[in-house]
Amino acid sequence: MVRKNTFVLIFLWAAHMVVSQEIAYELKVAISYYDSTSQSMDAYLKERCKLDVYFPKDTTNVATIVWFHGGGLEFGEKHIPEGLLEKGVAVVTVNYRLHPKVKHPVYIEDAAAAVAWTFKNIEKYNGDPKKIFVTGHSAGGYLASMVGLDKSYLQKHDLSADSLAGLIPFSGHTITHFTIRKEMGIAGTQPIIDNYAPLFHVRNDAPPMLLITGNREKELLGRYEEVAYFYRMMKVIGHPDVELMELDGYGHNMVYPAIPLLLNFVHQKTGVRPK
To answer: Where do runs of H (alpha helix) occur along 31-177?
Structure first.
């Protein structure tokens, strides 16, 4: 279903403002998600490939949201979007290596390694490995889609992308990312759908997906249209659980109003409302 959201945002914000003050949260920072051998062989990996975990201390088996920052694969820092604080979920926020110090597919490999770390460790932070949702904004949304659709990246960690509870890319590329096209010497005027495009990996057995963009007139040029085409192809291929939402009044910087939609999706899929 394609939706244009205006008044629904007001309702969702109000619903998620009610959070129990009795829940205590803890933040663990700068955790390496590669093993010590990998860190010893690559100084930039050791410096950059870290994540933070924010989690409710006294509640177990909570859903986990893995958040990848944006920045065109060239800049950006891990952070927890304000709307995800004290919402009864765990949040894993990730730094990954950046262009030009590395090139593709390192960005995707780092994202997959962080998701694999989450699967293997989130129970220590009161999370349920069966309730892991992967999301992010712009380049982060692109990484979320690639990790969840191209099964080869998580297979390298002996994990299945189908084990993810859901994918929620915020305004992410669905064609090949422009930085990767630049690395391949392909002009930005040439649209590419190759192995590094989420569109290349559409499949009807992918995890449930919620696609969110800003308004098509305010977004990055063509971003809504490429995401809408991805949505169309997922429907054509027979995916049973994919939805597209376009946020009226917002452009590419649409993270803040989209967070309640993400949380609502997580709660729908897990059957658990915020405490």
So the answer is: 36-41, 43-48, 106-121, 139-149, 152-155
Percent of the chain with pLDDT over 90: 88
The amino acid present at 97, given as its one-letter code, is R
Kindly calculate the radius of gyration of the chain based on its CA atoms and give it in whole angstroms: 18
| Residue ranges of E strands in the chain | 2-5, 25-32, 50-56, 62-68, 90-94, 127-137, 166-170, 209-214, 242-247
Query: CA angle 53-117-61, nearest 5°?
Result: 60
pTM value is: 0.92
CA distances from 23 to 55, 60, 89 (A): 10, 12, 11
Burial class (CB in 10 A: 0-12, 13-18, 19+), 77: exposed
In the predicted model, is pLDDT for residue 13 greater than 60? no
Q: Are 12 and 44 in contact (CB under 8 A)?
A: no
34: phi then psi, degrees, rounded to nearest 5: -105, 160
CB 243 within 8 A of CB 210: yes
Which DSSP state fits 103?
A: -
**What span, in angstroms and rounded, lies between the C-alpha atoms of 246 and 109?**
29
The dihedral through the CA atoms of 245, 249, 250, 251 has a sign that is positive
> How confident is the model over 169-194, as pLDDT tens digits?
999 999 999 999 999 999 888 888 99
Token pair belonging to 147 = 């990790």
